[in-house]
Write a structure and sequence with these properties.
3 helices; globular; alpha+beta; 4-stranded antiparallel beta sheet; Alpha-Beta Plaits
Length: 98
């Protein structure tokens, strides 16, 4: 069953390049990852959307995801509202439109 995770980030001014560079190797360093895209949602705001083979694959990739986060954590601003520097959600696909 295909699973996605989505993570919102707010990047500090002038740190966009470092933030994006930190993600360049995730295709090979996150086991079980099928696809990942980072979209820009506003000034200094980004969203990572990742597709995984299964819930187990996502769970198995958490150590690698945390290691990647730790490599660029210094580039992030707090999102506010008690969220910290990331706002992450995940879940199984319940409807595939195409």
């Amino acid at each position: 069953m295909t699973v996605f995770n989505v993570v919102r980030f707010k990047v500090k001014a002038g740190m966009d390049g470092a933030f994006l560079d930190a993600h360049k190797g995730i295709g090979t360093s996150w086991p079980g990852l099928r696809h990942a895209n980072i979209i820009r949602t506003g000034d200094g705001r980004y969203c990572l959307i990742a597709e995984w083979e299964s819930q187990d694959a996502l769970a198995g990739g958490r150590t690698a995801m945390i290691a990647t986060l730790n490599s660029f954590r210094h580039t992030l601003d707090d999102l506010g509202g008690g969220l910290g520097v990331t706002d992450a959600v995940s879940g199984a696909v319940v409807l595939a439109a195409k």
